[in-house]
Amino acid sequence: MGELNDQVDRFLEYFNGWRKGYKIGVFSYITLNLKNDKRLLIAGSLRFYPQVDASKILNFRHESKSITAEIICWELKDDPLKLFDQITDGIISMPNGKCLQMHVEKNDVWSQFNSGNDLTKNNNPRVATLKLMGGDILGLVGSVGGLEDIDCELQTSTIPFNGLNDLFWLLDLGWYQLGNPAGLRSELVVRAENLVVLDRDRSMINGEKASIKLIMASNLPKSELKIGIMPWDRSYEGRKSISGDKEDVEWLEEAGVFKGSVEIGVGENPAALVFISHSGILFDRWWIFDPEKHINHRYAAYKAIDSELAELKKFLSGQSKNPADDLESGIALLLGLFGFAVFHYGLTPRLQEAPDLLAFTEISQLAVIECTTGIPNENNKISKLIVRTERIRSSLLDSGNAHIEVLPIIVTTSARDSVLKGVEEAEKHGVAVITKENLDSLIERIQQPPPLPSQLFAEAKLLLPH
User: Fold this and answer.
1) I need a surface site. Which of 113, 208, 337, 376 has the fewest CB within 10 A?
2) Higher-scoring residue by pLDDT: 269, 353
3) DSSP letter for each residue of 363-415
4) Where is 167: in which H helix or E strand?
5) What is the pLDDT of residues 37-50, one digit of tens each?
6) pLDDT tens-digit map of 413-434
7) No. of H helices and E strands in the chain?
8) Which residue from 177, 184, 104 is spatially nearest to 142, judged by alpha carbons?
9) Which of 96-110, 131-145, 198-212, 355-369 has the lowest mean pLDDT?
10) Cβ partners under 8 Å of residue 69, min gap 6
11) What's the rounded Cα separation, in Å, for the pair 457 and 236?
């Protein structure tokens, strides 16, 4: 239990350090109803927010023979961390005073704390998370009839649901995988949401001024806020920062949060990287740009066809009408927007033994890519990719191109946390795995100053263990 306590303590330390910024808690969960009124957690999500419009939170409770599901929203007046008092025993103390039980056998609660540094590194707002996973509950699910019986029960409810997956989606628990190869386990994810964030839709460069809009939890001191800026030309004299309590920064309190606005000179730069920090902690970073000066000419041309990137996002979500084929097409488009030379074989019937995609960087590095909407090793993709990659390496060697670096990559629309076992298996064989988080980040970067393909190739290599 030492590692569990360490991971929980790290989250508690983070949360307590920013406690005054959080006002609202939202807890959604699904439990398995066992004998003697015992409720065993299948999946749960606890989120702490600086503010939230309670009218937009679904007032929801479902109870049937085998399943109970609920969404609870409450104001954080008492100590919200009491729910962790018995977590080492797999017991979660709910805000209404009741308890939920994770399935625990032989101290098998697994835990992982993530401070959110990986998110800010990829230009996403900081969110700190604690993930807890208990023991395998498949046998207990069988004791109430099994997954198919539960699905039928939900489909015949007064308020019907198309099985457990539909219920997971409604409660924002879509990350939970019923088909997880690691087994069906009790899982709880706790999130301390972002406290300071750049308003991406309203921040931009206009002429020689960067107009920066931001949103901050109302209980945080403005004097500890810092807005930093690095211009596109990366000049030393163009780099600067400003404190949130300076008179140049205008503030308005609205809907329980502070909204700030400031203009900072950037000269003739078409873009600038903005850093938003508080008390020495980076909470957000983002490239803002002048909409009249498109830096990525490929994106400027693509906008004439798919102006809001809506079709590309649909292709890369794994939720389109033809998810497998559309994912391949989406990856080909995405790589093309970043300047890769792309060869798409996956949809060509006579070339089914080829990789889905080959993508060359500007310095002739080669990514050999397979795509999946499921786990990385779905349909034995890892071994197939390794064989195809070695065949390509041999061909390059025989033709006098042994200097070309080749990297096998699997792209999945699944979240990394949900396919950790598959990611580890791929990495053991030198295969990098691009997950939903990476795809989301790349979509956002299309509108920013574009990295060279070789830079993205290097970032993919960094996904492999060193």
Assistant:
1) 208
2) 269
3) T--EEEEEEESS-TTGGGHHHHHHHHHHHHHHHHHHTT-TTS-EEEEEEESS-
4) helix 164-170
5) 788 889 999 999 99
6) 998 888 888 899 999 999 999 9
7) 12, 23
8) 184
9) 96-110
10) 28, 29, 30, 31, 60, 61, 62, 63, 167, 171
11) 28
Measured distance CA(249)–CA(176) in Å, rounded: 42
Q: What's this model's pTM, rounded to 2 decimal places?
A: 0.73
* 71, two tokens: 């969404």
Query: In CATH, which superfamily holds the domain spanning 196-289?
Result: Immunoglobulins (2.60.40.10)
CA angle 435, 439, 445 (to 5 degrees): 145
Percent pLDDT > 90 in the chain is 52
Q: Span 297-463: which CATH code?
A: 3.40.91.50
Mapped onto helix, strand or coil, the DSSP state of residue 17 is helix
Q: What is the pLDDT of residues 356-366, one digit of tens each?
A: 999 999 999 99
Q: Which residues are registered as beta bridge partners of 70?
A: 29, 61
Q: Count of residues for the chain?
A: 466
In angstroms, what CA-CA distances link 405 with 341, 357, 367, 389, 458?
A: 15, 16, 8, 11, 11
Structure tokens at 442: 């790349």
Domain with CATH 2.60.40.10 in the chain: 196-289
Contact 30, 53 (CB under 8 A): no
Count other C-beta atoms under 10 Å from residue 199's C-beta.
15
Residues 6+ apart with CB under 8 A from 229: 210, 212, 238, 239, 240, 241, 264, 266, 272, 273, 274, 275
